[in-house]
Amino acid sequence: MSVSRRGFVAGGAVSIALAGSLDSVFMTAAGAAEGEAYGYGPLVPDPAGILDLPRGFEYKMLSTEGDTMPDGNRVPGRADGMAVFPGRRHDDLRLVRNHEQTASGVKAVARPEWTYDPAAFGGTTTLHVDDKAELLGHYVSLAGTSTNCAGGATPWGTWLTCEETEGFNGQTKSHGWVFEVDPTGRRTVAEPIEPLGRFAHEAVCIDPRDNTAYLTEDASRPFGLFYRFLPEARKGGYHSYRAGGTLQAMRVPGVSDLSQVLEAGTVLKGVQWVDVPDPSAAVTSTRKQFDDITRSQKLEGAWWSRGKAYFVASYSRTASGAAGDHAGQVWAYDPRRNTLELELVFKPGGKFDSPDNITVSPYGGGVILAEDGDGEQFLVGTTRRGEPFALARNAANGSEFAGVTFSPDGRTLFANRQSAGVTFAIRGPWQRLRNR
Q: In the structure, what pLDDT confidence band is assigned to residue 89 with cuts at 50, 70 and 90?
């Protein structure tokens, strides 16, 4: 193992947002008070008991689990990962939203050509929203898929929705795939992208320079892997990945478990990529096809920024068989230098924990984190100096946040509460943080 240490590099949105150590950034003793000072001010209790926000901010509930849609079907449950895409006009948007259901809940029901396995309850919905964050319409855009957790937007303007499962009792087709959804609905077909492999997919991000995809796996017994897919068709486009390619798993020599590394700023050199023998996992799960590989508990969100693939380990616990304890890690793989750097570590016991979905904020050079942790659930923002603050609190229940994504103009932050599932549009004086 080749390991080096260096400080964080200031200058980019993600690097600045994650600069510093957790002791000074996310583990402050006066977390609530400092959050008020760093961010937009204290959270104001919502009289409706739904979403607490700072003064000057407001929310709309766009699409709620169980609502009746224009086609007569109901909005499915367990809203999760999401991305926003430009609409057909300059003043409208399309949001594609996952539903992390397996075989229960409010079932995703779509027309036959958009339905993969009628026994599965998951899928995606597409929300049509105007530039004032008013809902114009919504419909199920993919059905018959299972446990649609996260995914990722492609450089060519589609949504990759990932099944976080390897199958369930009663299925009529195999599961554990990635599906591609066209936000316009014109090209979507309910067929898996088999070259991306069959495993407990979590999220995906794509290098726009050559369309290499990086994928996370949330699994246990054994823990999941970090993958990359080298496409044969380097020119991206709808279903271009179906042309084939090579699926590989990451190996860091000397590091069998990413939780072995607990000091932010550690750089691991000499990353290796090993071909997955059977990406279809016809007999053996992909992660079980290796003896010598690098694993991690709870690999979650992934996104591409500043020429690197960033991915999240939500937590790690030695009681579950991990090598070390933490309440969240953010890693960055640099394909040009072939290095892996630990950008951020959440230490157990802090105010905020278990980061999941993450988006880069256009204000203040920070990020917005969707918590899926213990106790109260927050949307956590950071300033460009890495100071954390509570942007929103789930005042209704203890359900996680997910699907955080800004509109292209930066005026609206969209986010989901998973249970009972609802999509929020949050607007307010975002610019107040720009110079902090």
A: confident
